[in-house]
Amino acid sequence: MIYDPAPLAIFIFLGFVFGTVGLSFYLGRKAKSSEGYFAAHGQIPWAVNGVAFAGDYLSAASFLGICGMIAAYGYDGFLYSIGFLAGWIVALFVIAEPMKRLGKFTFADALDAKFNSRGIKGAAGISTLVVSIFYLIPQMVGAGSLIQPLLGLPHWVGVVMVGVVVIMIVVTAGMVSTTWVQFLKGSLLVIFSTVLVVMLLQKGLTTDTSSFETIGPLSEQDLKQDTIAGREVIPPTGGWLSTADKKQEFIRFIPKDGRAGYDIFHIDDIPGSDKKLLRQAQSVTGSGKSKEIDGAPNGRESGERELQPIGHLSKLPGGETSTGPLGPISFFTTIGDSEVILWGSTTITNPKGPKTTVYYQKPTAGNRVLRPGEHPKFAGIRGESFGDKLNFLSLMLALFCGTASLPHILIRYYTVKDGSAARKSTIVGIATIGFFYVLTLYLGLGAMTSGALDLTDTNMSAPLLANSIRPWLFAVISAIAFTTVLGTVSGLILASSGAVAHDLLIGVMGIKLSGESQVKVAKLAAIVVGGIAIILGVLFKELNVGYLVGWAFSVAASANLPALVMLLFWKKTTKEGIIASVLVGMVSSLGWILLSADTYKSVYGLDPNDAIAPFSQPGIITIPLAFITLIVFSLFFSSKQDESASKANA
Amino acid sequence: MNTSDSPSPQRRYNTRLGLFLFLVYLTLYTGFVLINAFAADKMETIVLAGLNLAIVYGFGLIVFAIVLALIYGLMCRKDPAELTETAEAATTQGDSK
Q1: What pTM did the predictor assign?
Q2: What is the ipTM of this complex?
């Protein structure tokens, strides 16, 4: 799609960004010491910290990725919402208070509280870095997606902008300003998402039968003619031809009105009849400057074409065309009885030149988008393959265990004064986040039926939904989403810089630094990590951000959670056990992801069938593996000295 | 960080309460995940006000998490160690001002 940057949108957007950065500068003046930089002196009120948890956690992935997945396939994206929230139960009931009691600045502090071991600091510091960088990728990708429609700038410019602004925030301020930015952003996100849902329900649902053409019903014989319904057929060649194992799927016509390119239609079966229906499709060939839409250059001048926005209902219950205002329950029941147009895609290989991706309409019964299993990644739960089911269980396990092991969430426990404040702020966090996740299902399904979606970028669904309701709302929602990215990214970069300065340099290498020079080193580290994040954000442009976050959760859950839980609940845990568990959990989950079918397909562009890992989500294997490693190393490979130390401590 | 002290009875009560509530939630979450994985068709059953099991159970898990969190917040006992620490901190701050 080609986006028009609106002056109002740019104005509101820049206002938000400058406001955030200005606030950050203002609050950051005081944070000169390391206590101030890393932990805001432990002086943040618990209620503020609780909402800041929501700000940290409701990242671009929650907001953009989940809504996008729901908009494209229905209920499946909501499974992420459920898993993401369930993870907070682990954080509250198991981790929150001990974490606050044991540590000072970083996650490694807590793991190392009993042992004072360089190895633990090193392993935990590295795992913090790895998880944070993995989590950074989707945030940066999301930022790029947002900038494109808002300011009409290319994706990479968005990524670089976020990188630079965030580095500025982190370098000037540290934890105090990061926390207040998170608080602000968390509140705004929840408030405006609520406004959006209320307006969506007020507007109700409508059908759209005019945006895309339908021809037919036609017989097999009709389809073989040179002209169909008065339109001249382009004879199929190359990948457009039917082959022995694949029927011809599309028909292309010469455009009637002398436009460039072709009009393309998907050949649909009519259930219970041998007739066919032609439904209009859209095609994209190549990318970048040479991108073609329906066979014509991408653009709005004469001789050019652009992708049309999608997402509509083809039928409402009782043959209505508009429902009027709906309630929170009747919204779902109405969709359940309607027919929704989802979009599938297929690739056509051309003998010369780049491949063509054709997107075609898939009329789908409304009750199918309200149940799990429609998304290709979740379709396995409806199949027979046990591997697919394991993959699903593995993802849900990683989401459950991942939250309480994310370094940027864990460091937030050090900004409040004691265990009970840590507990209270987690409760506020759960309430805020839970409420927001309830909204995601409305936002996603609303976007699915908004008629405003971008075929090639599901990440933009929530802001585009806002645009279909009120343009100013689009500006506000995009600006919030952008500050969302800023907030989460600054939290992550802060966690990484803490890991480098506090854990790796001081803890492992034994370099002695005063509080102030520690902060300087941390800021330098922030710049480097920010730079890496910018590069990765540009490289991973095409992937759905919600899906990428699933990976970060798997690595965090495998590397950090087993060590943390065992340290708290098993007295025989030794430092060798912890080091081995963190390293094995991290390496195995990372390795598994890099060798999985999903990565083969979407990152390397290789045949997913060649992948070595039997299914894509590692958690169900690597989390238990890290637990077992810890037990084995603690029992059999620990030095005598260490055992006596742990006995004395127990 | 004084971790070698044995935890106060209040802290032990809080830990046990936390673990109990955790297990309650874990059971419900596991139920949801297993139904999805092995009996996905069941999720289409209409159970309440015309809504299917997927929506009711899913929303239920979110609302229940909030309810359990509030119960935990109300039932937790204040750790005496923290009370003294807080009091000390307050005095020190008061002195320095």
Answers
A1: 0.86
A2: 0.84
